[in-house]
Amino acid sequence: MSGEFPKSPPGQALRDRLEAGRRIAQSCVTNVFGDSANNAAMATSLGTVLAIGVYEGALLTRPGALGRARFCFRYGAAQVLPSVIWLTKPARTCCEAWRIESKPLLREVSPRRELKVLGAQTLRSIVAGFLGIAQVMRLVDSSAAAASDYDERVRNGHEPLFETGVQERVVRLAGRESDVTELSVRRFGAHIVPVFEDFSLPSVRRTLAAARTAGSGVDTPFGWHVPDGAYSKMESWGVPPPTVDRDGDGTADYDLSRAAFRVKREWLLPNGPNRRALVVEADSSVGEQALALGAEGADDLTLQECSQGFRLVERLATEQKALEPDDAVIRVMLADASRQIRSGGGAAMSLRALVEEHDEADVIIDASAPLIHSIVAWAETTGNGRYLLFKTENSEYYASVRSSLKARGWRVADFEGASTKQRKSLPVLVYEETTEDSVNSIESLLRKNEVDAAQVCALLDSVSGVDELRRLGSRLPPARQVSHVCSAEIYCDCFTRVRHAIRAGTPTQKIQRELDDAFAPH
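Given the sequence above, the corresponding structure tokens read:
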């Protein structure tokens, strides 16, 4: 795991297991004793066993003996648990244990009376036995159900995060799916708290697997679920329904301090000398279409959702006393800053201008500039001038990359229209609809020797494609490495770069300038 964040204290894995066990046990107890009908039946059965035991004590004692009623009740209560396994505590043993003189209290039992005593013992053992078996079976079923329910809540993002052990955490609004968040969790483990809209997607399941690998190995809660379009709804963050009028306006108010999503003061990052900041990040890039740059389309996580999520997390942190007056909340947004957003009347404005005008974020990581910068950096290492081929079946990808590279002095031509000589001698970019398609396309080109492996570059969205590309290179005859530009790796590095600047106490305006300068055309 990366050294950016503090290491977990010794014994953290054990504490996680104990906390998971405690929650499962608590849920089990609730399942067993939370059913009023079952509780009533159990109370009736126990009362019956006790009553039979008291009757049995009356059969064994002399009428009118001093302390007879008290002894009968104590005797009946003492027989409740032994009755489950068909045992009886002898009356004389009870007298000795309770320091009661047995001779004036206990009577000589005739055969007829002894049969009545044995009948009472049999009856209470039958009642208690069935009660015990039923409760044991119910306990077993409840334990299995509690463990299953806990696992399901973790996998669906409904289980509150563990509140101890992890210092310095970053909230990441990830939309439906986020390749960079999957990589961030793989690198930083529980220090990244992802908020997803759909926990059933394979990419989110991979993020859960990465969280288990980076953590204690048990199913510890690693993220939170907020439905699409519900970032401003209190119930999305586990806030109980309003019951108390807190501000005196005549209506019940939500109490965010009781929300299931807990923001702890330990989550804050250093922000220069004697200052701390809660960092909230948002991935508003377009996932598997990372190079559909500047396109007018719907983002996975919209600007409105980012803004609502930022504000709700800040409100939660404030009402839960995680923030002090001198603390800052720093909002970092990853988005295609040049994407045009049109109003209902047709007016167009870039996403970045809109964010700055309405103060929707403190730092914007441009989703396009770092990618184009990395593509150019790779192409320049090939030493073939400023001309390259682009292989893709998506006309939108082709147009956006061609336009972006043209602004930096590069010419881009379609791979399919190039000659055999050009394919062998010029740098070749490969970017298909999905990461898997890109890796497969490169394998086909290399197996047919259509391109030079040293001059081909895969444009990937997911880090899983990087792993697959590495395996591809090792199994090709002969073994060779294939260059790649992975948006998840680049974005993760950008988020890390911003956090390092925050830790140094750099003002957000300066962080933004340095970020823009780093990826500006030269």
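The radius of gyration is 34 Å. Try to locate this feature in the token string yourself.
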